[in-house]
Structure formats: structure tokens, C-alpha cells
Design goal:
The structure is a single chain. By secondary structure, the protein is α/β, with parallel strands linked by helices. It is built from 17 helices and 29 strands. The protein folds into 2 domains: 301 residues, Metal-dependent hydrolases (TIM Barrel, Alpha-Beta Barrel); 187 residues, no CATH class. Strands 1, 2, 3, 4, 5, 14, 15, 16 and 17 form a 9-stranded mixed beta sheet that branches. Strands 18, 19, 20, 21, 22, 23, 24, 25 and 29 form a 9-stranded mixed beta sheet that branches. Strand 24 and strand 25 form a beta hairpin. Helix 12 runs antiparallel to helix 13. It is globular.
Length: 581
């Protein structure tokens, strides 16, 4: 890919102009292409010239100069649209940023804006920035946002997010947004440091993304005054419309735990919405199997099916996010000067492309993936297998807490009084109650209680995949939990399920115990198998991967198991502190 990291060099810019002057030959010419002009929301027919990774001309003319290296593509009978943008990705839900990007490309999502949480947890800043630069060589345009909080209560929060470190993230050219503001109540009332980071983001002309579930109009107004630009937490048409009224960019979510897009579009019909310029789509870091049919292409399809004008349905996925991130001079359209991200459709009504050009090269051609994504050498960045230099003593599996966590749904937990006897090796199968423990990956502390609603008979599941990077144990049998833990340790991280003294499922997570490097197609099948297995053991919800991930997330009510202990989220009280090992 020839795009020079974050901008084109002067030499390249002169070459682009030389193509127009007939001094250089374009590398691709798309003849008689019917394409969507997202600026005027009309379909037009033109010849499109591409030089290396950039669109240099759109119009009636054909180039004066061609060469044996110029590829001429006849486009009659196809419809061309800009590559799609996912503006809010969490690229570590078992998959990794590289495998997600490669998979996204196959169905036309050519730009991803990613959460930097795992790099904050797993890498020092120098290695993280080197990795960001490395990923600029992918055919997918990869951008990032800079977090202002950990999304959980960490034991050394001040070391996790140092002031100067956040400022360096915000100034990095691949980082195009501040947020998301999961810590907005603190910023609203007392967090001067977070408010300063918001203002620095604004000074750099980068947007600040909120995280305002259920926020009132008064709260939305206050956060707008403090500098928030966008929010993706609307769960109804009314909430989305309220944000649009106030000038927010409002992303409609279609995710594995919040598939709200169809419902919200239906409800927006009550408001006679005819201006969609501030609306975006996001899949909000869905778990692998939710992506079986693609990523942003599936959102566009829902919008078209629900009556959103076709031109608007595509604009929501392309030019709207480009404008939100102030990247519309570079992405989101088929126009001179833009990166050559182009999707070829068999019909306007079908947003899943038959061919994809990414940064000027074929990524998919006539339904066949060409394979442009070179593998990332994770070891080079210190992202090798997780290594535990400690062992789990079965005597540590102690669960003497008066208050447990009861699942309201996949991710929300409420407190409940514990009546079970904590010293049993196995809990009764007649109850949907299990032991749960969070252990520091460095082996320094542990937190334990009971979890109600996860299983009614499973022996044990152990996961090194979690919101904080620490280790989760859940189960009814202490011996099965120990067996699963030991196997997870042998694998160098992963999710392991044991029952009746046998390992019945394992998913190695070779990238620091958090992510796998297997292809997405294979991972989707593995996750589906795990979900089906857990449901057979009494898991009554839809997304066990998210349950594991959000057990320690303090931006969700009401009670959480975190590195500092069992926490009442609303009161911010530590009900029972972590125990040092």
C-alpha cells in the first residue's frame, strides 16, 4: 500500500497531478462507472482514474496516457459506492485488530476506528505506537481513539492513564478521537483531568465521543457544553432524535447485545426524519458470530429494508462518519483526492459487494478474496502468549461472601443475598448459582463471590479474556475450575471449559491471553460452538463472551467484580475488597 502512513508526500502529490496532465499513466481506470455521488446524493456515470492508492480523477474524460501497467475495468452493469466506515470498533472481542480488518474488508468495510483499551493494558506506549504505524500498511484504513478511563476500577488507575501519556495518544496522527466517555459522571462533576483531556482533544480539532445511556436532555446539554460531539448509546428513536436535535452525531447501534438498528429506524418514522447527515452506523465491537454476514454492509441492508432512502443509507456508512472525524477530504466518497476505497455492487439494493478495491488494489474480485493483508508479527511487539509464573492453590477457591451477583441480562448484574454454603466443593445443581472469581494475571490478588444465572450445572469455565486482562473462573465444581485453570495456563491463555473431570472445550488466545490470531471464519464457528455448549449447561442469555468481558465493567449497573473488590457501581462503594494472595 503506497499511502505514506498518514498523508501523501510532496513527490506523490506531484505524481497525482502529473497523471491529470498526461505525463504519467494511471494504475487503474474504471470505465463508464455508475457511482453514488454522496455530496449531491445522486447516481452518476463517469470514468474514474486511480493512481496507486488515490482517486485522481472522476469525470467524462479518459486518460491521455496509459501503459501496460494500467488496468482498464469495464464497469457497466455494476454500481459503485465508497468503502464503508465502522466508526466504533472494539477490535479485541476474541479476534484481533488485524483479523477483524481482514474480515471486514471482504464485505466492503474499508475503514475502522478502533478502541485503544487493550494497547493501554498490554503494551508500553512506544510499542503501541509502532504497532499503530505498522497497521497503516494494511489495505484497510486503521484509526484509533484515546480512552480517558479504564472502564473498570483498577488498583493503580493513575499509572494506567498518566497525564502525559494521554496527551501523546491524542497527538498521534492515527488517533482521531477522544473518548468514549464511559466516565462521564465523573467528568460532569469533579474530574478536572478528564475535562482537560476533552479540551485538548477539541484544541487538536478532533471529536469527543460520549457514552450516555439513558441520558436526560439536561445531561446531554451539559455534556455538549463540556465538549462532547457524538454518542452511540441511543436505544430508541426518541433518544436518537433528541441527540440529533442538539447537534450530536448519533450512531445507531446494531450489535450482538444491542441490535437496535431496525427498531430505531422504525421508531424514527414517527418523527418524519428526512435529514440523515448526522446519523452513523456502528456494530460496537460485536462478538464474532454476529459478524457472520459482514459488518457495516449488514447495517446498510437493514436501513434499506426499513425504507431509508438508498442514497442516505449508503451516506450514513461513508461520508457521514468521514465528516464526523474531519476526514471527508480523504475518505467516504468517490471523488478526486480520496483514498481509493471502492465497493462494486450488483444492485443498488444489495450493499454486500461483489468486488472491493482498497487503497487502490483489489481486495475482492468477482466474489473471490485476493488476500492483501500480510500477517502481523505479534511477538515483535511483545504480544506473545500469556505466561503465568504462579500456580492456583485449590485452597484459594474460597467463596465466603454474603452478597453475590445476579444476572439481569448478558451484562447487567444486581446484588442478591447468598444462602449457599461456601465451603462445598460442588454447588447443588438445583440452583442456577455458581462460584465466580477474578484473579490478577500477575498473581497478586483475588476477588470471589457467587454468580447467579450463568449456569445450573457446569463444572467450570476459565477465561483469560476479560475487560481488565485478568483471569475469570466460574463454575459449580472447584475441581473442574482448577482443571480448566491449569489447562488455560498450559495454553498460554484462552477460554477453557471443564465438566465431570474432562476438558470439553478450549479456545487458545495466543495474543496475551486476550485475542486469537486464527481467521475470523474459524473463530466464528468456535464461538458458536462455545455458546451452544454453555446454553446446554443453563446459560439463558444470548452472548456469553460479553458476559465474561463485562463482569468487571463499572460503566454498567449495579454490582461488579473488579481488581479492587466487589463494587456497588452507583454508590462507588467497595463492598468487599480484593484479597492479597
Amino acid at each position: 500500500m503506497n499511502e505514506h502512513l498518514y498523508r501523501w508526500r510532496n513527490r506523490q502529490l506531484r505524481e497525482h497531478v502529473a497523471v491529470i496532465d498526461g505525463q504519467l499513466a494511471p494504475t487503474k481506470v474504471l470505465k463508464q462507472a455508475t457511482f453514488l455521488n454522496v455530496f449531491i446524493k445522486k447516481w452518476q456515470t463517469a470514468n474514474i482514474w486511480i493512481y496507486e492508492d488515490r482517486i485522481v480523477y472522476v469525470g467524462e474524460d479518459l486518460p491521455e496516457k496509459t501503459s501496460h501497467k494500467t488496468e482498464i475495468i469495464e464497469c457497466q452493469g455494476q454500481y459503485l459506492v465508497p468503502g464503508y466506515v465502522e466508526p466504533h470498533a472494539h477490535p479485541f472481542q476474541l479476534y484481533n485488530p488485524h483479523s477483524l480488518a481482514e474480515y471486514a474488508l471482504k464485505t466492503g468495510t474499508t475503514t475502522l476506528v478502533n478502541d485503544n483499551l487493550m494497547w493501554l493494558l498490554l503494551l508500553n506506549q512506544k510499542k503501541a505506537f509502532s504497532l499503530l504505524d505498522e497497521m497503516q500498511h494494511l489495505p484497510v484504513s486503521m484509526f484509533w481513539w484515546s480512552r480517558f478511563s479504564a472502564q473498570s476500577e483498577l488498583r493503580e488507575e493513575e499509572n494506567f492513564l498518566e497525564h502525559e501519556e494521554v496527551l501523546r495518544w491524542l497527538n498521534h496522527e492515527a488517533v482521531i478521537q477522544g473518548g468514549e466517555l464511559t466516565n462521564w459522571p465523573d467528568i460532569l462533576h469533579e474530574d478536572e483531568r478528564g475535562l482537560y483531556w476533552m479540551q485538548e482533544t477539541k484544541r487538536l480539532r478532533k471529536p469527543v465521543e460520549g457514552h450516555f445511556p439513558g441520558a436526560s436532555k439536561k445531561t446531554l446539554t451539559k455534556m455538549k457544553l463540556l465538549g462532547a460531539d457524538g454518542d452511540h448509546e441511543s436505544i430508541s428513536g426518541d433518544e436518537l432524535y433528541r441527540r440529533l436535535e442538539m447537534g450530536y452525531y448519533a450512531a445507531i447501534r446494531n450489535s450482538s447485545i444491542r441490535p437496535d438498528l431496525r427498531k430505531i429506524i422504525k421508531e424514527l418514522k414517527n418523527y418524519d426524519l428526512n435529514v440523515w447527515d448526522y446519523v452513523l452506523y456502528t456494530t460496537d465491537g460485536s462478538t464474532p458470530s454476529f459478524y457472520e454476514d459482514g459488518i457495516i454492509n449488514t447495517c446498510i441492508q437493514i436501513a434499506i429494508d426499513e425504507g431509508v432512502p438508498i442514497e442516505e443509507a449508503y451516506s450514513i456508512a461513508t461520508i457521514n462518519p468521514a465528516k464526523y472525524f474531519s476526514l471527508d477530504n480523504r475518505l467516504g466518497s468517490i471523488a478526486p483526492g480520496r483514498v481509493a476505497h471502492i465497493n462494486f455492487l450488483k444492485s443498488k439494493e444489495d450493499p454486500t459487494p461483489v468486488s472491493v478495491i482498497a487503497k487502490g488494489e483489489w481486495a475482492v474480485k468477482d466474489g473471490q478474496y485476493v488476500g492483501l493483508c500480510d500477517d502481523v508479527e505479534w511477538d515483535k511487539f511483545g504480544l506473545d502468549q500469556m505466561k503465568l509464573d504462579w500456580t492456583l492453590d485449590p485452597d484459594e477457591l474460597r467463596f465466603s461472601m454474603p452478597i453475590g451477583m445476579e444476572m439481569v441480562n448478558d451484562v447487567i448484574m444486581k446484588p442478591y443475598p447468598i444462602k449457599s454454603e461456601a465451603d462445598k466443593n460442588m454447588l447443588a445443581r438445583s440452583q442456577d448459582e455458581a462460584y465466580v472469581m477474578l484473579i490478577d494475571r500477575e498473581g497478586e490478588w483475588r476477588v470471589s463471590t457467587f454468580l447467579k444465572g450463568f449456569t445450573n450445572r457446569l463444572g467450570g469455565i476459565v477465561s483469560s479474556y476479560s475487560n481488565t486482562g485478568d483471569i475469570i473462573l466460574i463454575g459449580k465444581s472447584k475441581s473442574d475450575m482448577t482443571l480448566a485453570f491449569n489447562r488455560m495456563q498450559e495454553l498460554g491463555g484462552g477460554i477453557v471449559i471443564a465438566h465431570g473431570g474432562e476438558i470439553i472445550f478450549e479456545l487458545p488466545l495466543g495474543i496475551k491471553g486476550v485475542m486469537t490470531d486464527i481467521p475470523m471464519e474459524e473463530l466464528i464457528e468456535k464461538e458458536k460452538k462455545m455458546k451452544k455448549l454453555l446454553q446446554s449447561f443453563g446459560y439463558a442469555h444470548s452472548d456469553p463472551v460479553y458476559t465474561l468481558f463485562f463482569l468487571s465493567s463499572t460503566h454498567l449497573p449495579y454490582i461488579r467484580i473488579t481488581p479492587v473488590g466487589i463494587i456497588d457501581v452507583l454508590k462507588k462503594d467497595i463492598l468487599f475488597p480484593a484479597i492479597m494472595r
